Amino acid sequence: MKIERIEVIPYSIPYTHPLKFASGEVANADHVLVRVHTDDGVVGVADAPPRPYTYGETQESIGTIIEKTFAPQLTGLEIVDREQIHAVMRRTIHNQVAKGAVDIAVWDAIGKTLRTPVHKLLGGYTDRMRVSHMLGFRPAQELLDEALRFGEQYGITTFKLKVGRRPLSLDVEACHVLREGLGEDVELYLDANRGWTANEALEVLRRTEGLGLTMLEEPCDAKEALSRRRLVDKSPIPVVGDESVPTAGDASRELLSGGCNAICIKTARSGFTEATEILGLCTGLGVDVTMGNQIDTQIGSLATVTFGAAHEATSRRAGELSNFLDMADDLLADPLRIIDGTISVRDLPGVGAEIDEDKLAAYRLS
Ligand code: MUC
Ligand code: MG
């Protein structure tokens, strides 16, 4: 059960509805499929979504670092020796998304080797997660129409609104229109992807007072430490660290310095191993966590629900699991389904992401 080779396959699938947000826009899923092969024929699978505007990694850099640096160093290691695998990857700094995909593929291979679902290996708390849908930049009425459609069609009752626009009135208006149109029982929270200053974020909090917003994610750049701390102190709702906290070390720094008081965990950039470390830190400190979406495909969303459903703390809140619905196609042989606002884990060995090889052949770039 040794790692024999690691395959990286860049591919591209268009979005029918591109997602726009303060730090970027996604019109195509230009991702990398990662497959870890063992010497006894097991294949672990994961998806790597590059986000250059967030972490600096590109489709090319993810392929290259895995192929040229990690694969030669990991070949020959036992698939179950995760600490050795991570000790090797730690020798290269950054490259969180590439490392995350290798880690998830390794977990998938371990699950298949042990003939056990990975959600059981990780904790086995529950078998599904409630779904939160991310709404990108659009005029207020279109946002409301989209949210109503997702509510009706999929039973989704939690929405994360992408904000961080100027003038602030664009987002303030969207919040009012959504609350008015969706009613009081729908959960609404905001993610500014560092689009505002701390003072602008405070102004938006004042102008949306009374709307029952539950969280404010990455309102401004966490590196602007003093103003960010002031915002966190004054905010009546939790301020969630997202792109500022890809590792457990980053999460510790931001929590201890007052840069945030809740943490978004994304398996795409932290894998299952580092996500477990971040989660342990947060539960130890009594800090709320959310399961985020790196604008994931169905493969990535299945990884998120696998981790999120495995633990009590990560399954309390709705996880961001539904943006694959805006893609023209996907690579999963058995598509993910949202039923009554939830997505279930798969009771299959590993993570359960079986790839449709014909689709992969159609969308692969090399
Ligand atoms: C989010 O929560 O920020 C946007 C960029 C990215 O990396 O993830 C998304 C969603
Ligand atoms: Mg975010």
TrEMBL record:
<dbReference type="InterPro" id="IPR013341">
    <property type="entry name" value="Mandelate_racemase_N_dom"/>
</dbReference>
<dbReference type="InterPro" id="IPR029017">
    <property type="entry name" value="Enolase-like_N"/>
</dbReference>
<dbReference type="GO" id="GO:0000287">
    <property type="term" value="F:magnesium ion binding"/>
</dbReference>
<dbReference type="Pfam" id="PF13378">
    <property type="entry name" value="MR_MLE_C"/>
</dbReference>
<dbReference type="InterPro" id="IPR029065">
    <property type="entry name" value="Enolase_C-like"/>
</dbReference>
<dbReference type="GO" id="GO:0016854">
    <property type="term" value="F:racemase and epimerase activity"/>
</dbReference>
<dbReference type="Pfam" id="PF02746">
    <property type="entry name" value="MR_MLE_N"/>
</dbReference>
<keyword id="KW-0460">Magnesium</keyword>
<dbReference type="GO" id="GO:0006518">
    <property type="term" value="P:peptide metabolic process"/>
</dbReference>
<keyword id="KW-0413">Isomerase</keyword>
<comment type="similarity">
    <text>Belongs to the mandelate racemase/muconate lactonizing enzyme family.</text>
</comment>
<protein>
    <submittedName>
        <fullName>Mandelate racemase</fullName>
    </submittedName>
</protein>
<keyword id="KW-0479">Metal-binding</keyword>
<feature type="domain" description="Mandelate racemase/muconate lactonizing enzyme C-terminal">
    <location>
        <begin position="140"/>
        <end position="238"/>
    </location>
</feature>
<dbReference type="InterPro" id="IPR034613">
    <property type="entry name" value="Muconate_cycloisomerase_anti"/>
</dbReference>
<dbReference type="InterPro" id="IPR013342">
    <property type="entry name" value="Mandelate_racemase_C"/>
</dbReference>
<dbReference type="InterPro" id="IPR036849">
    <property type="entry name" value="Enolase-like_C_sf"/>
</dbReference>
